[in-house]
């Protein structure tokens, strides 16, 4: 459907309010996936789009018109076109977008606005779960873009593919999106298509640089050019500021070769985590790592237990007493990541959690006594048994079956994660993943724990983790299994017999620090890298 012929959907902006306007609808706009682009970043994007002097520029997710203002600052006479699907934002944009902007109320993805030699965009960040597309709708987009899309594809991914289709020959586009697709499974198709598009460049902001207030998103700016004669290199660089981004645009305009702090992404494997490689390149790592195996060769990683109602299933010691329940019907459990502050959870540290009134008891009865029968009845009366997860379990009050993991793996972390040795046989909720030794590798538990917390382990972590804004990292179970490591199986059981005593002594003396792990692992790495 052609947007220009939709009755009552095309208006001309008066431009009464200039760039920077904010109307107090912040939370509503954020919920719609709309976040305003910082002025300095918008100007760098506009510089790229406007360099060939297009006569008309499209913003397919116009919002209040901020990006179109950036284009007008480069070329005051440019014809601006903005598409906006939110009717309230559309009405506000009539006064905030640049004067004379043709504003169209409609769904960009399901309509045809024509082709443009200039496109600038900050597409909405809406996850697939919130999009709630039917399979028929996904097939529509499969056919539209000529590829089978992952059903976890974010809305911005669909925008990116359509922007390329709507870019005219010799045209340019600058698009700022979250960087998650560079590492996520759904991003494989998008990365394949990018390589076919042959973009000029991709600039990702460092993980501790957060461009958008109140969001945890690492951002990437894509610089597209539909020019078959353009350079074949697909340059990728990690930047830390708007000035770095301006420098990157300037370097591309000059036709400079790929720089030492850049990567040519043209031949990268779409299955790889591009984001990690870009960050590693920016740090100019030169140390070699004896990585010939993966953690998954020796251990399985599984997510923690999801209860569906933590406040009911996980109790404090005082609540156990209040309901006259027996601790025999509960497993010891960690319910929050910040409840553990060290590298080891042992009996003493767990007793401290109990005394601190943390939720440390996970309901897991083997038999039902009268007090427990009463407690379960209160759960039924309050509808706990009808909540989503409990209602799906064979017995609503029994948790997922999980053995106590050997090592607790933090799902989220800042900077260096702490892999926690589980000496107290505690279970964990979803705040931690769990590492379980595969049969025959149980003796490697202390060595793997030491390796993961060492500098070598931190490097391996940096190759697989997923980045959010403000330096926040996330690990999925498969990421942990993909972490590179030496051939730890070369270290025999006999060589590790004294390691448990060494760990116990370090726990007692509080000698465990980040440097301690490096000192200990250095005793075993020579064995691991010998053939």
Give an overview of the whole structure:
This protein is of the alpha/beta class and 531 residues long. It folds into three domains: 3-283, Rossmann fold; 287-306 and 402-531, Alpha-Beta Complex (Adenine-n6-DNA-methyltransferase TaqI, Chain A, domain 2); 307-399, no CATH class. The protein has 21 helices and 24 strands. The strands form five sheets. Strands 1-4-3-2-5-6-8-7-9-10 form a ten-stranded mixed β-sheet, sandwiched between helices. A hairpin with a 4-residue loop joins strand 22 (466-467) and strand 23 (472-474). Helix 2 (39-50) crosses helix 3, helix 16 packs across helix 17 and helix 16 (445-453) packs across helix 20 (514-521). The longest helix has 12 residues, at 39-50. The chain is globular and about 75 Å long. Mean pLDDT is 87; it is low at 19-33 and 285-289.
Biggest β-sheet, characterized?
Answer: 10 strands, mixed
Counted beta strands: 24
- Uncertain ranges: 19-33, 285-289
Q: What is the strand arrangement across the widest sheet?
A: 1-4-3-2-5-6-8-7-9-10
Question: CATH fold name of the largest domain, please?
Answer: Rossmann fold
CATH homologous group name of the largest domain: Vaccinia Virus protein VP39
Radius of gyration: 27 Å
Give the DSSP E fraction (strand runs of 2 or more residues).
Answer: 15-25%
- Which secondary-structure class do the elements indicate? alpha/beta
> Architecture of the largest domain, CATH level 2?
3-Layer(aba) Sandwich
Mean pLDDT: 87
- Distance between the ends: 65 Å
CATH class of the largest domain: Alpha Beta
User: How many helical elements?
Assistant: 21
When the domains are counted, the total is 3
Classify the helix fraction into a percent range: 25-40%
Globular, elongated, flat, extended or rod-shaped: what is the shape? globular
């Amino acid at each position: 459907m052609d947007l220009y012929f939709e009755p009552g959907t095309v208006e001309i902006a008066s431009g009464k309010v200039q760039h920077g306007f904010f109307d107090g609808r912040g939370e509503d706009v954020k919920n719609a996936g709309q976040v305003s682009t910082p002025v300095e970043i918008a100007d760098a994007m506009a510089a790229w789009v406007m360099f060939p002097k297009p006569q008309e520029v499209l913003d397919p997710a116009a919002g209040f018109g901020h990006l179109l203002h950036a284009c007008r600052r480069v070329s005051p006479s440019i014809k601006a076109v903005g598409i906006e699907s939110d009717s309230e934002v559309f009405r506000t944009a009539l006064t905030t977008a640049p004067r004379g902007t043709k504003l169209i109320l409609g769904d960009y993805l399901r309509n045809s606005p024509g082709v443009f030699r200039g496109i600038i965009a900050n597409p909405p960040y809406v996850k697939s779960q919130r999009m709630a597309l039917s399979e028929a709708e996904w097939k529509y987009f499969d056919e539209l873009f000529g590829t089978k899309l992952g059903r976890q594809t974010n809305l911005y991914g669909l925008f990116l593919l359509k922007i390329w289709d709507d870019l005219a020959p010799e045209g340019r586009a600058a698009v700022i999106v979250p960087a998650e697709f560079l590492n996520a499974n759904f991003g494989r198709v998008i990365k394949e298509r990018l390589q076919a598009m042959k973009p000029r460049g991709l600039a990702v902001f460092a993980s501790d640089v957060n461009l958008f207030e109140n969001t945890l998103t690492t951002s990437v700016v894509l610089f597209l050019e539909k020019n078959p004669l353009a350079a074949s290199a697909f340059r990728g660089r990690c930047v830390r500021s708007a000035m770095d981004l301006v420098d990157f645009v300037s370097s591309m305009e000059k036709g400079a070769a790929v720089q030492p702090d850049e990567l040519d992404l043209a031949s990268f494997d779409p299955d790889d985590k591009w984001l990690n490689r870009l960050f590693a390149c920016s740090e100019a790592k030169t140390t070699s790592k004896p990585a010939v195996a993966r953690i998954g060769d020796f251990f399985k990683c599984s997510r923690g237990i999801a209860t569906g109602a933590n406040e009911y299933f996980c109790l404090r010691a005082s609540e156990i007493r209040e309901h006259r329940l027996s601790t025999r019907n509960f497993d010891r459990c960690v319910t929050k990541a910040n409840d553990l502050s060290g590298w080891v959870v042992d009996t003493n540290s767990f007793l401290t959690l109990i005394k601190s009134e943390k939720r440390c008891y996970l309901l897991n009865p083997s038999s039902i006594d009268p007090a427990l029968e009463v407690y379960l009845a209160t759960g039924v009366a309050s509808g706990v048994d009808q909540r989503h997860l409990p209602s799906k379990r064979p017995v609503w009050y029994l948790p997922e079956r999980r053995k106590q993991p050997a090592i607790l793996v933090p799902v989220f972390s800042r900077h260096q994660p702490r892999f926690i040795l589980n000496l107290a046989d505690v279970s964990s909720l979803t705040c931690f993943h769990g590492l379980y030794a595969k049969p025959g590798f149980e003796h490697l538990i202390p060595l793997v724990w030491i390796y993961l917390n060492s500098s070598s382990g931190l490097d391996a972590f940096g190759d697989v983790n997923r980045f959010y804004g403000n330096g926040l990292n996330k690990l999925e179970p498969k990421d942990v299994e993909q972490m590179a490591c030496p051939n730890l199986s070369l270290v025999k059981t006999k060589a590790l017999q004294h390691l448990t005593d060494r760990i116990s002594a370090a726990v007692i003396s509080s000698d465990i620090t980040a440097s301690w792990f490096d000192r200990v692992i250095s005793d075993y790495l020579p064995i691991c890298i010998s053939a």
